Amino acid sequence: MTTKFPRGRELILGVGAGIAAYKSADLLRRLQDNGFLVTVVPTPNSLNFVGKATWEALSGRKAQSELWEHVADVPHVALGDKANLVVIAPATADLIARIAQGRADDLLTNTVLSTTAPVMLIPAMHPKMWFNPATVENVEKLRDRGLFVMEPATGRLTGADSGVGRFPETAAIITFIEESYGYCADLVGVRMLVTAGGTREPIDPVRYIGNRSSGKQGWAIAHQAAMRGATVTLLLGPNELPVIEGIETVEIESALQMREEILTRFDDVDVLVMSAAVADAKPVSVSSNKIKKDKLGALILEENPDLLAEFSAKKRRGQVIAGFAAETEGDEAALIEAGKSKLARKGADLIYVNDVSDGKVFGSEITRGAIITREGTITSINDVTKERLADTLLDQIKERVSHE
Q1: Alpha-carbon gap, residue 221 to 387, rounded angstroms
Q2: How far is Cα of residue 381 from the mean position of the Cα atoms in its chain?
Q3: Neighbours of 329 (CB within 10 A)
């Protein structure tokens, strides 16, 4: 089954009740272009300027403004829990004052109080309101609390007035978000194909040859790549993992199914990450009926195609291929030598060799091993989360994509 979603991180776009609310429609689009999944939370009064239908059509998601809508979903907490970032644009003088006072009189202010995500305010108001001592004090108070408040632009306002208080240009807001948050979608434009999980090679309708791979590492790589803005397709073997909103997921069973899915996409991607534990062998013949226990006897096996070596040999200039190797060597030096040998045989650009002895790594949240590049660079990985390893790998992949 194939599921397609937009890509990126979860962002709450709060919309205050100012005339500049209409400009946030363009901001929403540009946030999506930069890899964010956007949920709009307009204040009730802001709907006098831009209605829910507009926000829902542009975001593709429900736009909720009232505390008493869908109470069973606990939206005043759930929205903030899910968010990686909260951006309020425009932030009116009234909304800034209510947030500074810690009030929770609508869904947006409740969300601000309950979230642990960074909160950014993009003010827009008349200069007399912006320079009013109450607003100045409120802005200072919010900045002291760790909220990010952008300086408004200078220019034409409502009517004939002009001055400081104009809603900033969209590009300036995007830059402010990236610089303040410390997060940049550094993989935007990179097309990535990730394989994950084990394969199942059928013996008969109820039995198969498989392995212990959970798919968690490949899932983490796909997740982190999408959060960094890449366009990601995940080829995922049998698993119990949640669907990642933000990528295309294709579920497969066997090594040959995985090969066919890679073949249809390989020419169109910049990066192939082969983290799947592909079965080395499969039965020569598969019974269409369940084999009786007393008839099982011996299985005759044949090798599966070596997918990493096959596609490494086919890669074009500028494509990056990363492989994985699960080994049970006794010490780090032996593990690294095994990784170097496999990297040379396979022809990939880099490989992560991990220690799976004594049942380690498979199904775990923690991994250890070493990243080895074709140039001979070795990066030791000592008991880190699979998300951390994913980002370390993506850092190295990004350098190769941008320099070749």
Answers
A1: 7
A2: 22
A3: 16
| DSSP of 113-175 | HH--S-EEEEE---HHHHTSHHHHHHHHHHHHTT-EEPPPEEEE-STT-EEEEEPPPHHHHHH
Strands 378-385 and 366-373: antiparallel
CB contact at 8 A, 272 and 232 = no
Q: Could you read off the pLDDT of 151-190 as tens digits, one per residue? A: 999 988 777 777 898 999 999 999 998 888 766 668 888 9
Cis? peptide before 90, omega within 30° of 0: yes
Residue 280: Cβ-neighbour burial (10 angstroms; 0-12, 13-18, 19+): middle
For 282, phi then psi, to 5°, come to: -140, 155
| CATH tag for 191-403 (out of 3.30.360.10, 3.40.50.720, 3.30.565.10, 3.40.50.10300) | 3.40.50.10300
8 A C-beta contact, residue 244 and residue 218: no
Answer whether residue 362 shows pLDDT above 80.
no
User: Cα separations (Å) of 113 from 33, 50, 147, 277, 361?
Assistant: 28, 24, 12, 44, 38
pLDDT at 360 over 60: no
> What's this model's pTM, rounded to 2 decimal places?
0.70
CATH classification of 2-181, choosing from 1.10.10.60, 3.40.50.1950, 3.40.50.300, 2.20.28.10?
3.40.50.1950
Residues of the chain with CATH 3.40.50.1950: 2-181
Indicate which residue of 110, 211, 304, 354 is catalytic.
211
> Is 211 considered catalytic here?
yes
Is the CB of residue 55 less than 8 Å from the CB of residue 63?
A: yes
- Enter the tokens of residue 296: 């099982």
Span(s) in the chain for CATH 3.40.50.10300? 191-403
